[in-house]
Amino acid sequence: MQTEDEDEASCEEYVARSDFTGSSTDQLSFSRGDRLLVHAKPSSEWWWAELQGVIGYVPASYMSQDAAGEEEEDPSIEDPWQDEEYFGNYGTLRLHLEMLSDKSRTEAYRQVILSNSASLSSKRVMDLGCGTGIISLFCAQLARPSMVYAVEASSMAEYTRQLVKQNGYDEVVTVLQGRAEEIELPEQVDVLVSEWMGNCLLFEFMVESVLLARDRWLRNGGTMWPSSAALTFVPCQADSYYAEKMAFWERPYGLDFTPLQPLAQQEFFTKPKFSHIIEPCDCLAAPCDVISFDMYTLQVGDLEEMKGQFHFCVEKSGVFHGFTAWFTVCFESLEAGGATVELNTGPNSGPTHWKQTLFMLDRPVSVCAGDSISGTIVLQRNPVWRRHMTVTLHWTIKGSTDNPDNSQAGTKSFPMWR
Ligand code: GJV
């Protein structure tokens, strides 16, 4: 355990577990295996370190005290999935209430079951991470599946069993308490349904459990719901967030507090802002899908690093504060030619509990209609903390022919959270 008192202790040597690209002038870049001298640990996430005479912040989770770097597991990392905390949270009602009250989300799954009710007849279904069992209950209520296996690792499973009984569906729905990776079913299933999506689509990496279950329990030719997923990006204005967290320091009470701005940047703009709500009018360009995948072919290994590209044409002049991300998932029909159901968490669809995710640039840039913003995105899964990832963005702004001076490039990495 790191305590505050140890901050003053003399330097300690650490080895980088993997490459890291600093995203601002006060962050260091380093490569896997580099030896860094950690001078101070001002927070549990960012340490003050030295590499080849250069000093800056480094993400603590990339540092290993082990001389071998990432090869040898750090014995302090006993639960890289943080399952105790994760399933502990899902053992209480707070998150279930949030998910069930999310009409767009819950109605989308209800619609999938309803519009496929005829084809679901006599089908075997697995509902992975069923929570309070809402999807399984929809299957029993709206269709005639032969069996629904409702799999839930948290202690909520006991209540889910009661809900199933209370509603008279205990012949159809079997609640299995355990991690999907470990439970045994008596047979393979025809349909694997799950609501696994996290912030920025992948956060929490519950999708890994879904892929492993697919490979083990979905029969050949079976159906995945959702069937595909996409992450969408848009360059945006975020005036009020910028004003609240950064411009605030310019002249509070008639005083100049700007020396606190670098600290504000570190504190408020280093990580993405979850639960951001973007208004359609804050979008500076037409949104574009940066990453998309098919739930039938995606492999667990693909999750380590997902890369995408974007090319936006600025549609209206404004202040480019950052990028906003959201996702869409699609549920293919079991019937040939049947309608696909879509759950879109973007600003032009109904609100969801995911809201959107905002990635703030360090400095806002004025852009004009006709300018282009292009670049790349890399989602890199944390090598240690398996539910976390870092989002790295590179962008180039090119002024239009009317505005050729407005050309610049930038790069920034956002840990989410570790
Ligand atoms: N096995 C069983 N239940 C799980 C698993 C797993 N591997 N992973 C998550 N859950 N969309 N981000 C359960 C978890 O306990 C919770 O009840 C539900 O799935 C999460 C669903 C929403 N989370 C999300």
Automatic annotation (TrEMBL):
Keyword Nucleus: yes
Subcellular location as annotated: Cytoplasm; Nucleus
The protein's name in its UniProt record: Protein arginine N-methyltransferase 2
GO CC aspect terms: cytoplasm; nucleus
Native species: Pundamilia nyererei
Enzyme Commission number(s) from the entry: 2.1.1.319
Assigned keywords, A-Z: Cytoplasm, Methyltransferase, Nucleus, S-adenosyl-L-methionine, SH3 domain, Transferase
Residues in SH3 domain copies: 9-68
Catalytic activity: L-arginyl-[protein] + 2 S-adenosyl-L-methionine = N(omega),N(omega)-dimethyl-L-arginyl-[protein] + 2 S-adenosyl-L-homocysteine + 2 H(+)
Keyword check for Ribonucleoprotein: no
InterPro entries xrefs: Arg_MeTrfase, Methyltransf_25, PRMT_dom, SAM-dependent_MTases_sf, SH3-like_dom_sf, SH3_domain
